[in-house]
Amino acid sequence: VQLQEWGPGLLKPSQTLSLTCAVYGGSITTNHYYWGWIRQPPGKGLEWVGAIGYSGGTNYSPSLENRTSLSRDTSRNQVTLQMRSVTPEDTAVYFCARCLGNSTGTYDFWGQGTQVTVSS
């Protein structure tokens, strides 16, 4: 399984971030797999953002759920993250990854990550 993320590298505060993750070598609808987004701000640890499951159900970090949405395109085998009203604190490398069984367990396959910088 391979995952590849992409999106705009630079945004201004208050804009909406949109990232896409393409999954190769496995279907996003395969039973019991969850497809999550994890980010790492500069100099900090990993932060789980949210995940979308094989049936389309979503789970979000409580601190981000009021401005985050996950969706999927099963025909393209892609998942998308949207984050509204970004601030410089959203600057991070964003990863998509796969988890088996639940949305907050161990993620076994990761994309290479995409840098997102929020700056005026």
Structure characterization notes:
The protein has 120 residues and is an all-beta fold. The protein is 0% helix and 52% strand. The protein is built from no helices and eleven strands. A hairpin with a 6-residue loop joins β9 and β10 (107-110). It is globular and about 40 Å long.
Point out poorly predicted stretches.
none
Major sheet attributes:
7 strands, mixed
Kindly report how far apart the N and C termini lie: 37 Å
In quaternary terms, these chains amount to: single chain
Mean pLDDT: 96
Number of strands: 11
Approximately what portion of the residues adopt beta-strand conformation? over 45%
- Give the count of helical stretches: 0
Characterize the overall form. Answer: globular
What helical percentage do the residues reach?
Answer: under 10%
Structural class: mainly beta
Secondary-structure element order, N to C: EEEEEEEEEEE
Radius of gyration: 13 Å
Short synopsis of the structure:
The protein is mostly beta strands.
List the helices and strands and how they pair.
Blueprint: E1 2-6, E2 10-11, E3 17-24, E4 33-40, E5 47-53, E6 58-60, E7 68-73, E8 78-83, E9 92-100, E10 107-110, E11 114-118
Parallel strand pairs: 2-11
Antiparallel strand pairs: 1-3, 3-8, 4-5, 4-9, 5-6, 7-8, 9-10, 9-11
